[in-house]
Structure formats: C-alpha cells, structure tokens
Design goal:
This protein is α+β, with helices and mostly antiparallel strands and 556 residues long. The protein has three domains: 200 residues, Heat Shock Protein 90, CATH 3.30.565; 69 residues, Helicase, Ruva Protein, domain 3 (Orthogonal Bundle); 143 residues, Ribosomal Protein S5, domain 2. The protein contains 15 helices and 14 strands. The protein has an eight-stranded mixed beta sheet with strand order 5-4-3-6-2-1-7-8. Strand 12 and strand 13 form a beta hairpin. The N terminus is likely disordered.
C-alpha cells in the first residue's frame, strides 16, 4: 500500500497531467487550383506596323518645346519676345528701313502675359501670313548662305504654338504693306498633327501706320529682373544694333527708350554659293543628283563659289576624273574621289560680302550708350572660314565706370549675328575663349580657370552665314578650333589696348602721388630755411611760391 507521503506526491502529478492541453488535430487547408497563366497578346509585324505613323515637326516640338527655349515660364517669355524682335529687325534691314521697334508686356495675372511687338518694316503679303506664323520650318533663310538673325524658320511660329498650348489663345497678327493698301488682321493657330495653320479670323482693319507688322501672343510666363531678363536682352540688343530705336513698355507701366546712336543701316549682305571645302560626301552626292549642269567641270563652277574653269580642271585632275564626265551619272566611288580631289586643291576663301560686322566705332558707340565707362576698346578681325562658312569675329570691352563692380568677375556679353545670347553661358565657345585668355598679361587679376576680375564688360560678336549653335534654341555657339582661335585673337587685341590705358593710368596715379607728397612739404621747407638762414616771413613766402611754381611747371 502507498503511504500518505507517496499519495501527496502523486496528486500534483495527476493534476499536472489533467492540466495538460489536449492536442487538436488541424484540418489541412484545401489545395488551391494552380493559377491559369494570363494570355498575353503577342505583337505581330502587322499589328506593330498598324501603329506606325508620320510625326509632324509641330507635334515633335510641342512635346519637346525645351529644345526651342520654352522649357520654363521665365525663359519662354523672353524667347517669344526675342524671336519676334529678330524677325522685325531682319525685315526692316532687308527693306532698307531704319528700325523702330515697340515691345509691350502686359501682365494678365496668374502668370499670364500678353506680349506685343510692333515694327515699321515692309509688312507681310497677306497670303504668306498664315504660313509664316502657323507652320514650323517655313521660311526663306534656311537655304540662303547669307547673314541673318533667323536661320531655321522655327522661331515666331514656335512662340505662337507655345502660347496656344499654355493659354489656348491664337496668335494675332496685323500687317500692312503700304500706305494705300489695306491692313489685314489675322488670328492663327497651329494644327500640330499636320503642321499647318488654322485661320480663325481674317479681316481688313483700320490701322494708323503706313507699313509694318504687329504680333500679339498671350502665353504663360514669369517676368523677373536680372541678367536673363527682357530688360537685359533689350539693353544688349541696343549694343549690337546701334541703328535701332526701341521702346519698351513693361508690365509695371514703365516705359524705357533705347535711342539709336547711329543713323546708318548695316551694309547690305549678298547671298553666296557654298564653298567646296565645306561640303560633305552626302551633300555632294545630293548636289550632283539635282544639278542642271551636264559636266563635272560645269557642276563645280555653277554650284560652288570661288571655282573657276582652271580650279575645276585642277580638282578633276586631283580626283582622276574627266572634266567632261556627266555629272548626273557619276558613281559613289567617283563622288568620293571628287571629294578627295577638292581637299587636295588650293581654293580661295569664300567671299565675305555675305556677312556684315557691326564695326569697331559702331560697337563702341553702342556699348557706350548702355555701359558708362572710363575706357573703351574694340577690334574687328579679318574674315575667316570654318567648314567652308565665312565668319567675322568682333570684340569690345568697357573698363571702369561707377556702374560696374570693381571687385567681382568681368561681365561677358555674347552676341551672334547681332542677337544677344543670355543662356547656356558656360557651354558657349565665346565664354570659354574669354576664360582661356590670359588677362594677367594685360594688368588684370584672374583666378585660375575663371573670368578676369575688375570693373570690366567684355563683348564678343560672331557674324556668319551660319552660326553653329549647340541647339535649336540658339543659346550658345559650338566650339570649332577656327572660331576659338579668332575670338582669342580679338580679345588679345582689346587686351593690349587696355594694358596701355592701365599703364598710363598707373603712371599718372604715381606722378600725382609724388606731386601731392612734395606739395605737402613745400611749406615746411620754407619754415626750415627761415629758421636756418634767418629769412623774414616775406622771403619765406617768396621761396614757397617759387618752389610751388616749379612743381606746377614740372607737372605740366
């Protein structure tokens, strides 16, 4: 029998056994049926081909408007004004009219503005107005080798397209071609899918001008002051175009006048033919295909500048081709030989009557009208060539003046075909050339790899039949060795003139310091002589007057 102690020990064990949880059997979850694979419709060549379609150039730039300079509201406002002003200046100069330009900016609130640009140019023929303002890549300047502000036929129509995209409002145009002819008013939008104009309104109106054009665009923008503002663009335009009178009516109600500083138009430029040394293989092939000349010799003389009969025969000799070979039947291998023959032949540089520089005196007058300074210098380089395109580089500088910073970096104004470039400064050939120039040689301070310091404004202008911009927005000049070399040489010419001025100023400052020092001590010399020699005050004054007169004569 179990003792009482054994029973007491067994009781808790039994209780623990009873307290142990019962194991429950879990039912297995029903197995899910395997998911059926989703059927993905496979593309076929036919289905992919069905989605292919032409892309209109307007549609492309509507989606990529940053390429044209409309990538933010502030820049878009400036770009639209710049494109309209460029067109007005080109039209006035081609018609032989001294330009009078009125630029108006009206604030419509909520970052909406209405810009108006009016000129006194020759006006636009009625049938051409829709295409000029409502169709991208439409113009007369792209195919001409002649200096002009516009090049691509994109600018003003792109500005109108931007206004339509951001506000839904059409571009408005008033134009009159003569005193006895009616003025026409148009409202135009761009059909971006087809790149063609949609005329919303077309009517004759009363307009109290003899001839000219007025363009109005409502767009989304932002007006701000500063280095990349409308005010700065117009100031630099006045420097590069001293023959222009401009009136600016700002959004705050202020009016600024930029008077012309000369009353003569720039020289009229003439269209030239391409130069052989600038042609590429594909272009040469296309020219041979389209030419009306029968022989290769005739083709070379008719399609290119600076190619005489003698030069054409020399090119054919170097290419090992017959001068009388049919131009339209020449094969690809022979085209390559012809291109090599052109490269081996010495040909005179292209004519330069296709470009019109501002001029040294005119550039200084324009600069002086906007930037007050103590010293001005300018230079115009002889004509040069890149890729067969003639160009001329001009440079000017203004030093000193109360309005310029004395300790900060110099200010660089970049101009191409008389148009200021306000954006992408660091990527521009003109700016890089200023940095590369050693300004310490000319008496200025310059940190390594930076602009010179001091109260200095530097202007670089490139005039060419085709300015190599880095993008369609025309904001920076591409780097070509020939262009960089000419810019640096022009800056060095101006630097040497500045060095002479600064050296003379330092000599004058040193002479003035010595003069002031001696003049201060002349009375003390008189007192010393009186004490040593016992002179009277009258004799002392006579000695002081003689010494002062001698000092004044020496200064003169």
């Amino acid at each position: 029998m179990a003792t009482s102690t054994q029973k007491k020990k067994a009781a808790p064990a039994a209780q623990k056994k009873k307290a142990a949880p019962k194991k429950t059997e879990r039912k297995a979850a029903p197995k899910k049926a395997p998911a059926k694979p989703r059927k993905v419709k496979q593309e076929t060549a036919e289905s992919m081909a069905a989605r292919q379609r032409d892309i209109s150039v307007s549609e492309f730039f509507a989606k990529n408007r940053h390429l044209l300079g409309f990538d933010n509201p502030r820049k878009a406002l400036l770009t639209a004004i710049k494109e309209a002003v460029d067109n007005s200046l080109d039209a006035c100069e081609e018609a032989g009219i001294l330009p009078d330009i009125i630029v108006g900016v009206e604030d419509l609130t909520n970052d909406r503005f209405r810009i108006t640009i009016q000129d006194n140019g020759p006006g636009i023929v009625k049938r051409q107005i829709p295409n000029i303002f409502g169709k991208l890549l439409y113009g007369s300047k792209f195919h001409r080798l002649k200096m002009s502000r516009g090049q691509q036929g994109i600018g003003i129509s792109a500005a109108g397209m931007y206004g339509m995209l951001t506000t839904g409002k059409p571009i408005e145009i008033d134009s009159r071609t003569g005193k006895n002819r009616p003025a026409h008013h148009f409202k135009i939008q761009i059909d971006t899918k087809k790149n063609r104009p949609e005329v919303i309104d077309d009517q004759e109106v009363e307009w109290d001008v003899d001839h000219g054009t007025r363009v109005a665009i409502e767009l989304e923008g932002r007006h701000m002051k500063g280095k990349q503002s409308i005010d700065e663009y117009l100031r630099q335009t006045a420097i590069a175009n001293p023959h222009v009178r401009m009136t600016y009516q700002g959004p705050g109600g202020e009016t600024i006048e930029y008077e012309r500083s000369i009353d003569a138009l720039p020289e009229q430029t003439k269209e030239i033919k391409p130069h052989p040394h600038g042609v590429e293989l594909g272009v040469l092939q296309a020219m041979l295909k389209d030419t009306k000349a029968r022989s290769v010799s005739g083709f070379l003389q008719h399609e290119f500048s600076r190619v005489s009969l003698k030069v054409a025969e020399e090119i054919c000799k170097n290419a090992k081709l017959s001068p009388n070979a049919y131009a339209s039947r020449i094969g690809r291998h022979d085209v390559e030989s012809l291109l090599q023959g052109i490269a081996k032949t010495k040909i005179m540089n292209p004519p330069t009557n296709c470009v019109a520089p501002v001029g040294e005196e005119q550039l200084v007058q324009g600069l002086a009208s906007v930037v007050p300074a103590d010293f001005y210098a300018s230079t115009t380089r002889p004509p040069a060539v890149y890729r067969g395109n003639p160009f001329i580089i001009e440079a000017a500088l203004a030093y000193g003046g109360s309005e310029q910073e004395s300790d900060g970096p110099a200010r660089v104004l970049r101009i191409a075909n008389r148009v200021p470039l306000l954006y992408q400064q660091g990527g521009c050939c003109a700016y890089q050339s200023v940095v590369q120039t050693n300004w310490r040689n000319y008496g200025l301070g310059q940190p390594r790899g930076a602009l010179p310091t001091g109260p200095l404004t530097i202007v670089v202008h490139m005039a060419s039949v085709w300015v190599p911009f880095t993008s369609e927005s025309k904001e920076a000049i591409a780097s070509y060795p020939e262009i960089e070399d000419q810019i640096v040489r022009a800056l060095q010419d101006c630097g040497r003139k500045l060095k002479i001025f600064l050296s003379k100023r330092r000599r004058e400052a040193e002479a003035q310091r010595k003069y002031d020092y001696i003049k201060t001590y002349i009375p003390h010399i008189g007192i010393g002589l009186r004490d040593l020699l016992g002179f009277s005050e009258k004799e002392e004054q006579r000695i002081v007057d003689k010494l002062t007169g001698l000092l004044e004569r020496h200064k003169e």
